[in-house]
Amino acid sequence: MGADSSGRLAFDIETINAERPDDEEMDAQNSEHVEFFCVCVAHQTEPGTDPHYEIIFREGNSAEDELKVIEQTLDYLETKPPESVLTYNGNEFDLPHLEGRAQIAAETIEGRFDVAQRAEEFVDNIESIDLMPEACDFCGDEYTSFENICETVGVDVTRTPFQEYDFDIDVVPHRPTWKGIEPYMMGCDIPLLGERYLNFKRIGATDLPQFQELREAIKHYATTDVIPLFELNNKRPFSESMSVSN
Hints:
The protein contains nine helices and five strands; from the N terminus they run E-E-E-H-E-H-H-E-H-H-H-H-H-H. With 246 residues, it is an alpha/beta fold. A hairpin with a 7-residue loop joins strand 2 and strand 3.
């Protein structure tokens, strides 16, 4: 990544739950407890332009399939000029899991530590611009959701309403009760929907309308976690942004 870098990168990973011992409580920050399902990667050449983005889906349940997602993510991120990457909670989630899951998958696949090394080098060399700490400071909360800070500073985040997609499963009853019953896709829904997606792939049912609808819904949701990052970054510092809007 040279001095002639331009534009900005952003990315966000969506995960499914990994198998773990029954006596271990789920820890979303533990790379042994989650696996890559899909990644939205994006590149904006300059402020105000429409970002280019891609959704990289996992296409099977094997370690090879997961490592392929990580490798394709690195292919995208490494071939773009910027030396910085925008995330929301990326320092605690996305970047550690990029490195951690690459290492875990590589340990299962003989001769593929090249991807783990690439992931480590990327994390070590990229400038991470994680917008979450500043958002929490501004809102005065220990945790501020991406949607909340966007709404607060006037950045539009389009929801993914269930009523617009027919993938034949009601995810709301599977949510933790504290996540609410809102009729649109949330991050806590992805482990269930990701497993369903991979089950469709496993049995070769990708021609079914339910699979196609599920894929489109997840694609829409994944982009709404990434594309607004560019505008949200332009609102920093958030206190000055609010002063202007008022």
